Hints:
Helix content: over 70%
Strand content: under 5%
Radius of gyration: 52 Å
Amino acid sequence: MRTPNLADRLSMANAAKKAQLERAKHMAEDPERTQRLKARDEIAAARNRRITEREAARRAAREQQAAELAARQAAEGAAREAERKAREEAQARRLAEQTAREAAEAAEREAMLAARRAGRKKKKRTGR
Length: 128
């Protein structure tokens, strides 16, 4: 067997390149490959649609939860405000009742003092 010289090696390299180029052309023109690529693209598009739909559903769920939380917080705030107003009104009523009671007691004391004074003046006048 003889050793290939430079020209032989170059011609074998060119032949290999041509064969590889022919195989690549044949694969590029293959209708089955085109169908496989088309099917793969459709699968990828369907996957992307599903991912987008899931993300939209997650986003909608988060927005709904945020809205529910805001509504719950608003309701709690309104309840706290109503409770605070009720406490303030009850306190104002108690204060008004206490003021009225104190005024009645003061009026009663004044009446008793006036009666005592009147009795003392009467005693002075009668000379007893």
